[in-house]
Each structure stands twice: as structure tokens, then as C-alpha cells.
Design brief:
With 363 residues, the protein is of the alpha+beta class. The protein has six helices and 21 strands.
Amino acid sequence: MRLMKITALTGSWLRCARDVALAMMAAAGVSCAVIAQTVLLPPAPGLAAGSVDTAQPDRGINEWLLRMHEASRRRAYIGTFVVSSGSSMASAKIWHICDGQNQMERVESLSGPPRSTFRRDDQVITFLPERKHAVAERRESLGLFPNLLQSADSSIAQFYSARLAGHDRVAGFDADMVLLQPKDKLRYGYRVWSEKKTGLVVKLQTLDIDGRVLEQSAFSELQLDAPVNMNKLNQMMSNTEGYKVDRPEMIKTTAAAEGWVLKTPVAGFKPMSCFKRPAAAPEGSAVDNTMQWIFSDGLASVSLFVELFDRRQHGQEGLMALGATRTITRRIGDWWLTVVGEAPIQTLSAFAQGLERKKATPN
């Protein structure tokens, strides 16, 4: 399973943390087929019954999420964060700044092989210094919930509810703890700790349909309104001297144009974008473009990757799990489908069973 197929096309510190964790585990030889153990954690301190501040404004789910989203985009901060899933753990340091409209961030892995990722709006470059290799690409969004602002019809509230569940301290900051609960079994829930004054998310847990913690990320150290220098980050991002830089091409397309249709929609999940990505093929194999079709319900996202079947690359159909990320692989005639997302396996199964080939890919 290619690492690219697991990492989501997002830009939040949480997604950066997952990139770091997955890179660390991949480098250590951990298979993506390893089923991550779910951990039932005790209640967080400060969340006892009666701890809710009745003076707290009664926000709806869209108000909570927009506040968190804007804080994650517009605040300047420097912090160290940790992401954990079962027995696996990784840490990284992040620098983030916004000068009005433009955003920049730098993420340095603190565990596993050295790895640096720079993001300037939708431009991303990842440096792998041990291999003197860099990958430059475009990713569509920066923010904790990247598809939130595209959900203008407020459909999130049809599938999730939000309530203030208590208060806590994270990385030395007072935080509101908000519980985002799904209204069906097609999506996970979340506990989100947001800094009380700004709304910046400082801790997040992903919960399975039984409320158990699948994965969590949190700042262990955080400096808000930090003096992050955008010019310096730009210079570091542009300094590729001595590196081999790959620039994988992403071509916008539609699933229909590529000959695919989802015959049965999955409740709440809407198509967000579709790309063709160049696929590296073994010698003697036909080179084809991998199609990535991205769906979101405003919080969770699911990607469908479709490529030509190659028995030398593709093994048996199956299910895999890593933390909150689930994966299904399936052969469809001459094609190989990989469905990846932070959603229950029944959700991914609905996508896998619903994808249908309509016509040959145009030349």
C-alpha cells in the first residue's frame, strides 16, 4: 500500500501529525495491514459531571466548527504535538503563520527518519534529507476541517450534533471540550479541545461508533501569537539545492469522464474533487494514471483510488486498519480499487460496492 494513498489531502496540524506518524511506521517496516488496537481511555480530567460552565455561549455545531476552522487557519503559533494510535506514537514541531490571506507552515518530525514539510497555501514540499529527495505538489486546503467552508448548505448538522462537555487544560491553556457525535453509524465521533479564547484546537480524539478512542493528537507545548517569520519560511521552502525534486502532476478530471459512477450515494458524503495522478509502474507494465475521487461529509473524508490491475503489485482483496484510517481493496474487472478514509468499515464498504464502471477511459 503506497503511503501516498493513506495520507489525506489536507493541511492541518493534525494531518501533518498523521503524515509524520505514518512515515515513521512505514520506515520502521510496520505493515499497513496491522490492525491498530483501540484504546478505551478514562475520562479526561476536569470533565466530571457538573463541570460545564453555564455561562458558556450555547453554540450550534456550525458555530463551533467555524470558530475552530478559522483559528486553525489564522492564528500564528509554534508548538510541539504528539499523535498516538494504539502502541504507535510520533511527534513533530510546527510553525504556522497567516499574514491576512496567505498561510504558511513548517512541520519537522521529531521521531522516525528526518522529514520536513513546508506548506504555502496549496503549495507543499516535503524534504527527506537522508535521501536528498524532495516532493513538491499542490494540496487544496489548509485548515482543521478543510471541507467545512465548502458545505454551504449546512448539511453537517444533519449528520452530527455538538455539545459542550466540559473544560480542561492542554499544554498550559484553558480549553473547552466539545463532543461531536454522529447521528448514524456511517461516521466517527470526535472529542475536540479548543483553546478558550481563540478557538484553536489543541487536542483531538477520534472515537469509534462505540465511543472508544481510535486515535488522538495533542499539543504538548504551544506558543500562541508566536513571532513566526514568513520570509524565513519562504526562503527555507525554496532552498532545494542538493535535492532531487519530484513534482508529481495532478490533473483535474471527473469520475464520469474517466468512466466511473457511484451508483448508490453514501448518506452525507458529497464528491469534492477528482484527480488523475501519475502512477509508477514496474518495468514492462503499462503506465496508467491513478484516479483519486474524494468525498466528504464536511468533517470526515473518503478517497477512492482506481488504477489498472497488476497482479505483480496488487495482492488479495481485503480490509486494513491503522488508527482511525480504514482501507478496503477490491478488484473490479481490469481495475484495482482502494478505498481509504477515516470512517467505519461499513461506510468504506458502501463506497467499494457502489463504484461501477460505465465505459472505457477516453484516450
